[in-house]
């Protein structure tokens, strides 16, 4: 329970006075609040973040905060096909292994992102994905990559972003080289191969554009539920869904009932849910930092309050920990050229209002 949501969302001046079991109380100005993973753990959840590999060296203050906040890491690059097999037949695990070493040294778990995707691939791959060659290519890659990390990753995003209903393909699937070469069964094949090569890592479909009560996202939610039902009916070993949660603070059509119902529908199939890439873009908001931070925090809090209480949710990761680096500045630059403030720590590594929104949402989750 939060004693004062208003003060929570006030960013730098925020105070979170916990009255829940355990009676936590701390003031952000007086002392560093507990790490987000430490807040998540008593609720049976975890908190983690994505990491750009360049951040693994040369920024000790950042790494210190990463260790303090996160129980899980995911790489923005290192576990993608273009990094792991830049040339055909040549596997390079150096960067991924460095992240594994860092995580192990800091007692953090790691999630693998991602095996089969239409992006993040080396230029040679698409040409190699012929109907004759694609199956061997997929099996060989998954066997080698999953085999390399076998038993050491918490999760694998086995298939990333498979939906694109506007592509007009069966089941709302995206028209990718994998679909062209292998048909809709490419998803089955990938999950079965991953289950064989690394049975212990939780196997997920990771997807975006599922967050709002707008037509094209409703279509995507329906397509995902139907896809999951069909996969499970065929005995495909999919075990969970990654909700990317790339949110937009200017989007008004966030309907908590729609969202919590969607999460409940996934959970009712016996599947787990991970919030995999949370961030909140602010390029639709005015320049004023106070206004932006408040809107970003409120927006995320509303989304998290609808999702986190479902017992099928295992935890959440943000797509980066600090505003020092976010893909959003490249992909959706603000018109006024100001950097966005989409993450829990600002560029000075100070907690933003979003940090306290996440803390508050975790605090509000009933214990499991
Ligand atoms: O943030 C990532 C960016 O730095 C990479 O260039 C890009 C392509 O590999 O991937 C970005 O991460 C994406 C993630 O892998 C899947 N969901 C959307 C993320 C943001 O585009």
Summarize it.
With 368 residues, the chain is α/β, with parallel strands linked by helices. 39% of the residues lie in helices and 16% in strands. The chain has a single domain, classed as Glycosidases (TIM Barrel).
Query: Helical segment tally?
Result: 14
Spatial strand sequence of the major β-sheet: 3-4-5-6-7-8-10-11
How much of the residues is beta strand, in percent?
15-25%
- Helix proportion range: 25-40%
**How would you name the CATH homologous superfamily?**
Glycosidases
State the separation between the terminal residues, measured CA to CA: 16 Å
Uncertain runs are: 1-30
Q: Compute the average pLDDT.
A: 92
Do you know the CATH topology?
TIM Barrel
Q: Could you tell me which ligands this complex binds, including any ions or cofactors?
A: ligand 9MR
User: Which CATH architecture would you pick?
Assistant: Alpha-Beta Barrel
Structural class: alpha/beta
What does the secondary structure layout of this molecule look like, with pairings?
Elements: H1 5-8, E1 15-17, E2 25-27, H2 36-40, E3 46-51, H3 60-69, E4 72-75, H4 81-84, H5 94-105, E5 109-116, H6 123-128, H7 134-149, E6 155-160, H8 177-182, H9 186-197, E7 202-207, H10 215-233, E8 240-243, E9 246-248, H11 256-268, E10 272-281, H12 289-307, E11 313-318, H13 328-331, H14 353-364
Parallel strand pairs: 3-4, 3-11, 4-5, 5-6, 6-7, 7-8, 8-10, 9-10, 10-11
Antiparallel strand pairs: 1-2
Helix pairs in contact: 7-9, 11-12, 12-14
This protein binds ligand 9MR.
Ligand 9MR is lined by residues 76, 80, 119-120, 160, 244, 277, 327.
């Amino acid at each position: 329970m939060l004693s004062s949501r208003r003060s929570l969302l006030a960013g730098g001046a925020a105070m979170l006075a916990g009255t829940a079991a355990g009676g936590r109380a701390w003031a952000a100005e007086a002392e560093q609040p507990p790490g987000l993973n430490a807040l998540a753990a008593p609720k049976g959840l975890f908190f983690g973040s994505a990491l750009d590999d360049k951040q693994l060296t040369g920024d000790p203050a950042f790494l210190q905060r990463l260790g303090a906040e996160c129980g899980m890491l995911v790489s923005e690059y290192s576990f993608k096909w273009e990094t792991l097999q830049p040339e055909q037949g040549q596997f390079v695990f150096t960067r991924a292994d460095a992240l594994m070493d860092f995580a192990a040294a800091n007692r953090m778990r790691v999630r693998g992102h991602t095996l089969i995707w239409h992006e993040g691939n080396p230029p040679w791959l698409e040409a190699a994905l012929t109907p004759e060659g694609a199956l061997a290519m997929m099996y060989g890659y998954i066997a080698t990559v999953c085999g390399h990390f076998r038993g050491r990753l918490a999760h694998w995003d086995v298939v990333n972003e498979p939906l694109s209903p506007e592509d007009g393909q069966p089941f709302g699937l995206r028209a990718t080289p994998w679909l062209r070469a292998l048909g809709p069964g490419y998803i089955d094949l990938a999950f079965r191969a991953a289950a064989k090569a690394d049975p212990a890592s939780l196997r997920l479909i990771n997807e975006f554009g599922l967050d709002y009560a707008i037509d094209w996202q409703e279509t995507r939610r329906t397509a995902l539920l139907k896809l999951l039902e069909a996969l499970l009916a065929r005995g495909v070993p999919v075990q969970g869904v990654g909700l990317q949660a790339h949110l937009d603070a200017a989007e008004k059509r966030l309907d908590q009932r729609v969202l919590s119902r969607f999460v409940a529908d996934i959970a009712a199939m016996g599947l787990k849910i991970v919030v995999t890439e949370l961030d909140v873009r602010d390029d639709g908001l005015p320049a004023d930092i106070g206004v932006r931070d408040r809107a970003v925090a409120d927006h995320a809090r509303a989304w998290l309050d609808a999702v986190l209480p479902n017992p099928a949710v295992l935890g959440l990761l943000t797509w980066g920990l600090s505003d020092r680096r976010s893909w959003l500045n490249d992909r959706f630059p603000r018109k006024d050229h100001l950097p966005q403030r989409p993450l829990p720590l600002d560029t000075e590594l100070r907690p933003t209002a979003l940090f306290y929104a996440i803390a508050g949402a975790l605090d509000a989750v009933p214990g499991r």
